[in-house]
């Protein structure tokens, strides 16, 4: 914990040590006289990372040192991404101690130099506390800090940048250059092109202007080149255009038109898959596009009115359009290809702390950082699960203290940071924008028994977010009394105070539902009141304090189950094991959630075992239906509705200085009208930005049909061959078996006939009285299935379609291998799977005998590699090990594992580094295999 002493009012500017008294620091996590490194057990590990598909080695470093509680994945990510020095050289880092010391000691030295600490003892305590928190994965700085701080490289600490471009060729060429420099440093940038005159306006020479969309082509090509050649990660960029720009329709349709081109080229035989040989010819694919809409425009949409498009140079109206038609085109383009997103300009600027200096016109690539042009933001995120007590309540007091440490360190970094351009450095030093945030919200809500889409879940999320930002601004006000308010504060003091009051007023409107969120909210209220009082005396050190970033790579570093504000991806996850191999595990948060919901240990064990087998909670034994919603996830059997995501964003947005990086996923069946509704509700609910993604809206799918493997001669001339299925009839005499069964009290018989080579070829089901409607329907159904089997339809296809179907009769069965069935068809096809499918195929479908399930629970049928697997099996009897089965060959990430369970492909790209399918992380994608991200944080 920290406190300030000796703080003159209204101070501004930097301070040399000794000019003012600094902050005093109290220990929270550490013990006096004991270094944090001496409190943990360290071990050596070998890091060997391979391409999941071809087995080639992407990275190898042996003998690295980490605490024994760090997971294999976290060790792999940190070793390959953040250790500096050439691999194999003496300069190469080989221990987490070296990495943390490199960063923390640089921060503390800068803090001492610039007068942040009252005494050397306070500086030492601060060093130990930061070290402990980083080592124990309580928080993490954004990736550029780990890349650059304490090395011989430029000390770039910011992940997010906003550029500016004016209506001159010199400015446009500077944009290309500045963007490239930012990409080279492993960060992302965004900008607004609305100052560039439209293609309907004249140049001073008398010619017609090209318009902003044409200049986007050059910038897109540049980003694509740097993306494939960058040393740290792919380029990320955002392009914004105001809704009143005369070229707005062309901008809206830019990427949708390219998507239509992709479809045409694919149908003509070109390789248009992600990373395909012919995909580079497509334009505008390296940026996220967003339209800046005003309240005036949205009100015109609401009233079905007209809206004017204005010339950039004179401001005169060049054309008027029907607002609702333009809004429909925006929604239709997003429905087609997920671009453009939408940013709500008036809402953004209503929460702007520095309007006297300039408007907020753009954002970073992931839409969470929004502030002045030519500025930057460094990020850090806290792991929320680290603040959950044993009684499953949130430790608000500990969280407050952690935020104080982190925000202090973030502000210190601006004192020594380097920036890609002088303009960005000048603005950042004058306004000192910070972006503290968090990860693991989805896991925390589930673990405390809250549904993500619930009033209680939103109340707890809002209270935590309010406490975080309130504490950050309170600490910022305290720092202003020690080392001065930000340079631009004096000019913007009234506006800044107004925004602080808006945050505090929004906090007062939070309705609590449980003693957990009530306790957090009570402390948040106290913190806001104290922060306003201190800020009124001292001003604030930072123009911005918080954002909600994707937390991709750093989320893996902290072993987070969920990233940013996202819910859990699914209830089962793919886990790599120390020493090789992999396993499927039920999320650790599931037993915690069941405990929070007051289930007994025996019930928890049965429910978790069911989830391990089925991948969802529907019909889990003993689980009450009113608790199903607690286990809803982003994907799977019960997925959260799109508006559930939007409502969560709306709950926390009033307590975020910037915005929220999140994409709202929609099913493939979603309509354009539903996209319109989401964009409209986002405006009504006070969001600053919103982006959607509709499943299968992009052609560039991660699963390729292999078109690029054809020879040139085959491409030139392809024979038109028509393939027809051939029926393979059963012989007159064939082996068969009959099974009697009972499902929910209904009795019946299953007769199954086989080919002599033991392949199922026919079924007959007797259910109901002869001559009844039910008996007739089952006869027809049996005939249809039998003919399908004889025409070559695999049994596993039928099993995947009919298992878990729900209708009466359902319930208990008399089959020891299938104790519960959600319908007769669910029972029949799981029984057929057990009798006729090999273990490898049944494992993919989640169908096991009672002996197999018992062996999996006891760990007797597998030999897990490494101590980490042993810990999983000892602590969680729900583990199902697929490392020796087919899934080991087919799944390389949680997304791929989920695809095997759901039987459909997810619209996630393959990692450019290791080939593993990535998973959503905010509005970006994250690779669980190597830690690469498609975004900027």
TrEMBL record:
Q: Which InterPro entries match?
A: RdRp_reductase_class-2, RNR_2_N, RNR_lg_C, RNR_NrdJ/NrdZ, TSCPD_dom
Claim: Transcription is one of the keywords in the record: no
Essential cofactor(s): adenosylcob(III)alamin
Sorted alphabetically, the Gene Ontology BP terms of this entry are: DNA biosynthetic process
Q: Which residues form the Ribonucleotide reductase large subunit C-terminal domain?
A: 158-693
**Which keywords does this chain's UniProt record carry?**
Cobalamin, Cobalt, Disulfide bond, DNA synthesis, Nucleotide-binding, Oxidoreductase
- Cite the TSCPD domain residue spans from the record: 731-835
What are the Ribonucleotide reductase class II vitamin B12-dependent N-terminal domain coordinates in residue numbering?
A: 47-137
What is a single molecular function from GO for this protein? nucleotide binding
Q: Does the keyword Nucleotide-binding apply?
A: yes
Q: Which reaction does it catalyse?
A: a 2'-deoxyribonucleoside 5'-diphosphate + [thioredoxin]-disulfide + H2O = a ribonucleoside 5'-diphosphate + [thioredoxin]-dithiol
Its Enzyme Commission number(s) read 1.17.4.1
Look at the named UniProt entry and state the broad enzyme category this protein falls under: oxidoreductase
Top-level taxon = Bacteria
Protein family according to the UniProt entry? Belongs to the ribonucleoside diphosphate reductase class-2 family.
List the PANTHER family hit by this protein, alphabetically.
RIBONUCLEOSIDE-DIPHOSPHATE REDUCTASE, VITAMIN B12-DEPENDENT RIBONUCLEOTIDE REDUCTASE
The job of this chain, per UniProt, is described as: Catalyzes the reduction of ribonucleotides to deoxyribonucleotides. May function to provide a pool of deoxyribonucleotide precursors for DNA repair during oxygen limitation and/or for immediate growth after restoration of oxygen.
User: In its UniProt entry, what is this protein called?
Assistant: Vitamin B12-dependent ribonucleotide reductase
